Amino acid sequence: WALAAGPRVSSRELWTILLGRSALRELNQIEAELNKHWQRLLEGLSYYKPPSPNSAEKVKANKDVASPLKELGLRISKFLGLDEEQSVQLLQCYLQEDYRGTRDSLKVCSYVGSFLPPSPFFHVGFR
Questions:
Q1: What stretches pass through the bilayer (predicted)?
Q2: Is the whole model's pTM more than 0.85, yes or no?
Q3: I need a labelling partner for 19 at 20 to 30 A (CA). Which of 5, 10, 25, 30 fits?
């Protein structure tokens, strides 16, 4: 897809660049690509909201989400400082699209995650 600003890059491609896992290896190439799409990155990060009691109650009341998924989503919300509903959505997307482990390894991750303190740095600069 060609737009006036150039070819459209998916969000996944942008995150791949940020993580240093793209084909781009030269810093000037990475910088140019991120500068070209900075507005898109900012909008993507600005989409996420801080936690709220209302959102947590909606997650707890949602009958379409399994209890273990709710519990892990709520832990993720606390750890990242994200809205509870958005945290569950992120978890569901991750499990559907990217998770490559087993159910047992997911249980271990959930157990270990219960001991992690909340993340103080996720929303720095984005509130």
A1: none
A2: no
A3: 5
Token pair, residue 90, equals 């992120």
- Residue the block writes with tokens 């190439």: 29
Taking the C-alpha atoms of residue 85 and residue 48, their distance in angstroms, rounded to an integer, is 10
The owner of tokens 């900012």 is: 42
For 53-86, write each residue's pLDDT tens digit: 999 999 999 999 999 999 999 999 999 999 999 9
* Number of alpha helices (DSSP H) and beta strands (DSSP E) in the chain: 7, 2
How would you label 5-15 residue by residue, b for 16+ Cβ within 10 Å and e otherwise? eeeeeeeeebe
Residue 89 token pair: 């959505």
d(CA 125, CA 127): 6
Report yes or no: 19 and 92 within 8 Å, Cβ to Cβ.
no
Tokens of 10: 């998916």
Q: What are phi and psi of 120, to 5 degrees?
A: -85, -5
